[in-house]
Write a structure and sequence with these properties.
Blueprint (H helix, E strand, L loop, with lengths): L1 E11 L4 E12 L4 E5 L6 H8 L7 E6 L2 E2 L3 H10 E4 L12 H11 L4 H15 L14 H13 L5 E5 L7 H18 L2 E5 L3 H4 L4 E6 L2 E6 L1 H5 L2 H6 L6 H11 L11 H11 L1
Parallel strand pairs: 3-8, 3-9, 6-7, 7-8
Antiparallel strand pairs: 1-2, 1-4, 4-5, 9-10
This protein binds adenosine-5'-diphosphate (ADP) and magnesium ion.
The site of magnesium ion has 3 residues, from α1.
């Protein structure tokens, strides 16, 4: 449903320009759960903004549900279909009360009142925050605010939701709640998820992982494939799960280990056999 074909993008700030994305190609099928990893400045947010037509590639193409982001008339329809949740929960609140905030999207789409109420109610139930609907948004926790933001996106009936480090400012409980909501939308509603994250535990459960480094994709594959390619992960400035790192270090010492793994139980079996 999303095709990125050799996309390039530079920020043109006087006097210099900063190359942020340098020839990325990838393809995201409907209903997939994708994780994107990369150190700070590797181009993740720039890629995310290109996927929902907030910025347009200098060259190359982004095709969302058959629509090229370059065509002006496609940009609004694309933004309805690809929802974005940002890092800071306080930067995406638009309404005072939860109900108003969630209604903002469908109101802007110009739906009639009854349809708006229906969509907002559905979204609040799906995300499990119906009880919070009369609350002032500023009185909520960070995790609750992020769920309000997701409900707002959901009320627009998206095909894809992008989370741009959306859990990074939340406490562990807020993180877990947000991820469980996102997982449910993926599994039960078939909504594609693109989770940009620093947290390896979030990437572990993705269908596919992409690693960005200096504006290009340097690694892609299943979590197992990507995290056991320790050399390339380290080159990209990223860490790997502890169990994998331990096997990697032992292997470097010429200890006889055939395959690395991200599975803690398998790792402890391998080490058990060595002992
Ligand atoms: N608004 C901007 N103006 C100028 N340079 C930017 C802007 N946003 C990002 N950059 C630069 O583009 C590069 C990629 O940034 P970004 O896509 O935000 O990476 P990430 O999200 O992986 O941290 C970095 O060098 C960053 O400094
Ligand atoms: Mg970013």
């Amino acid at each position: 449903m999303i095709e990125v074909k050799n996309a390039h993008y530079s920020y043109k700030t006087q006097p210099e320009t900063t190359k942020a994305v340098s020839g990325i190609s990838l393809s995201i099928a409907k209903g997939r759960y994708i994780a994107i990893l990369g150190r700070n400045g590797s181009g993740k947010s720039t890629l995310a903004r290109m996927l929902n037509a907030l910025i347009i590639p200098d060259s190359g193409d982004i095709i969302v549900l058959g629509m090229n982001t370059k065509e002006k008339e496609n940009q609004l329809p694309i933004r309805k279909k690809v929802g974005m949740i940002f890092q800071d929960p306080d930067n995406q609140i638009v309404g005072t009360r939860v109900l108003e905030d969630v209604a903002f999207g469908p109101e802007n789409l110009g739906y009639e009142r009854q349809k708006i109420i229906q969509r907002v109610d559905d979204a609040l139930h799906q995300i499990g925050i119906y009880d919070l609907r009369e609350r002032a948004v500023h009185t909520l926790s960070g995790g609750q605010k992020q769920r309000v933001a997701i409900a707002g996106v959901l009320a627009m009936r998206p095909a894809c939701i992008i989370l741009d480090e959306s859990t990074s400012m939340l406490d562990p409980k807020g993180q877990a709640e947000l991820l469980s909501v996102v997982d449910k939308l993926n599994k039960e509603e078939g909504i594609s998820i693109i989770n940009i994250t620093h947290n390896m535990d979030e990437a572990r459960f993705a269908d596919e992982v992409y690693v960005l480094h200096q504006g290009t994709v340097t690694l892609k594959g299943s979590p197992e494939e990507v995290f056991t390619d320790v050399d390339n992960m380290l080159k990209a400035g990223l860490d790997v799960p502890q169990a994998t790192k331990l096997l990697y270090e032992l292997k470097k010492e010429k200890i006889n280990i055939e395959d690395l793994t991200i599975d803690r139980n398998r790792a402890s079996d391998i080490i058990g056999r060595l002992l």
